[in-house]
């Protein structure tokens, strides 16, 4: 009996020892698996960190490349504008040479004096200018501002407004701001001056947005600098809002036309001789360049490099082919015409007198001359104003 109990105790003890050994092995295995899982988790975390690092590097590289691509786009536009400017000057030189060849056929082995060549070039310029002068009886230049009339205050601080100078038109056009794709049309000046005039105005939707304040309305069409382009001028029919024509103005787009109105890259104007484009050319020290355009086809008829600076200029206008540049201070003050350029060379800017505008508000963002009214429609810090100008014969200027 005793032996049985001893044997039973031995069996139970062996079973307990075996169970304890199995438990110890299982714990060892669990610890091993835990370590392996921890190592795998560490590797996965390191992989995630590496992927995030690579993604950040790829993003930085793509951002860097996009910056370079943007810079290349700007450089491409600048080069295109520069090439267009060179092409324009080559074409101008070719026209002058062609005219000289027509007037004086080439003779072999004959030396031509430089003074003779210079005179022939001047003669070619005079021929072109005389053609413009023959289009209309136009022999006057502004000599001063007679009066100032403040019509109203409407729209933003910068903008432009004007009347169509074509015969029989009394409509008023209102462009508020420096970038938009719409403008307002009023039936006449009286409708424009009403207190709630915008309610009765016609909103004209354009196919392309405009930028700056250099728009022009002429014979039922609006001419403007297309927003987002370097030097594209667009012609749109106002009545139906359809695109009519466009052109790239050679040499324009690299500088604002007026340093005090930096949003205006191209300024379009109308006078007795027709449609003009004004821009600043860095190749000539930032001086203004005026280009005569055909209002129907937008073809360039002729271009003149002036002595008038764009620095400290705020606006300009033309009367009978004479450019009048209006200057001011950056802080705002009394505007004055300090530079005049006559395409017919009747007088030169150093000889022309300086005259002042009546002191009012701060500065002008645009001035639109109306050949029939002999008035300037100006935008003065949100105020729509009219200047009545006095004129005199150009020969009176030349004789003084």
UniProtKB/TrEMBL annotation:
Q: Which GO terms describe its cellular component?
A: extracellular space
| Segments passing through the bilayer | none
Q: Which UniProt keywords apply?
A: Disulfide bond, Secreted, Signal
**Top-level taxonomic group:** Eukaryota
Its localization reads:
Secreted
State the disulfide connectivity: 138-320
Instruction: Name the predominant localization.
Output: secreted
Q: Which residues form the signal peptide?
A: 1-20
Which terms does the UniProt entry file under GO BP? Answer: signal transduction
Looking at the keywords, is Zinc present?
A: no
Olfactomedin-like domain mapped to chain residues:
137-393
Q: Enumerate the InterPro entries for this protein.
A: Olfac-like_dom (IPR003112), Olfactomedin-like_domain (IPR050605)
Q: What is this protein called?
A: Olfactomedin like 1
């Amino acid at each position: 009996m005793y032996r049985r109990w001893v044997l039973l105790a031995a069996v139970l003890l062996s079973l307990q020892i075996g169970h304890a050994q199995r438990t110890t092995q299982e714990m060892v295995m669990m610890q091993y698996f835990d370590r392996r899982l921890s190592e795998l988790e560490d590797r996965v975390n390191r992989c995630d960190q590496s992927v995030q690092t690579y993604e950040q590097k790829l993003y930085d590289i793509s951002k860097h490349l996009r910056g370079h691509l943007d810079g290349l786009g700007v450089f491409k536009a600048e080069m295109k504008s520069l090439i267009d400017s060179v092409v324009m000057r080559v074409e101008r030189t070719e026209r002058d040479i062609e005219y000289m060849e027509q007037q004086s056929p080439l003779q072999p082995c004959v030396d031509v004096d430089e003074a003779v060549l210079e005179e022939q070039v001047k003669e070619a310029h005079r021929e072109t200018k005389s053609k413009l002068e023959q289009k209309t009886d136009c022999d006057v230049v502004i000599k001063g501002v007679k009066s100032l009339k403040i019509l109203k205050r409407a729209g933003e601080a910068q903008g432009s407004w004007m009347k169509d100078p074509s015969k029989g038109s009394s409509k008023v056009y209102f462009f508020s701001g420096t970038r938009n794709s719409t403008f307002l049309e009023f039936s006449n000046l009286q409708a424009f001056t009403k207190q709630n005039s915008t309610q009765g105005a016609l909103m004209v939707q354009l196919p392309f947005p405009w930028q700056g304040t250099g728009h022009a309305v002429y014979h039922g069409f609006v001419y403007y600098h297309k927003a987002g382009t370097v030097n594209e001028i667009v012609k749109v029919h106002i009545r139906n809002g359809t695109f009519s024509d466009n052109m790239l103005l050679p040499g324009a787009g690299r500088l604002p036309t007026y340093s005090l109105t930096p949003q205006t890259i191209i300024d379009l104007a109308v006078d007795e001789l027709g449609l003009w484009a004004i821009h600043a050319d860095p190749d000539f020290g930032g001086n203004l360049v005026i280009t005569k355009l055909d209002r129907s086809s937008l073809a360039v008829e002729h271009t003149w490099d002036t002595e008038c600076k764009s620095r400290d200029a705020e606006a300009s206008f033309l009367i009978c082919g004479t450019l009048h540049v209006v200057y001011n201070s950056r802080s705002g003050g009394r505007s004055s015409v300090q530079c005049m350029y006559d395409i017919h060379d009747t007088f030169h800017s150093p000889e022309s007198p300086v005259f002042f505008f009546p002191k009012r508000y701060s500065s002008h963002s645009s001035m639109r001359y109306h050949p029939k009214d002999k008035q300037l429609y100006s935008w003065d810090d949100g105020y729509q104003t009219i200047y009545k100008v006095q004129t005199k014969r150009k020969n009176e200027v030349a004789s003084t």
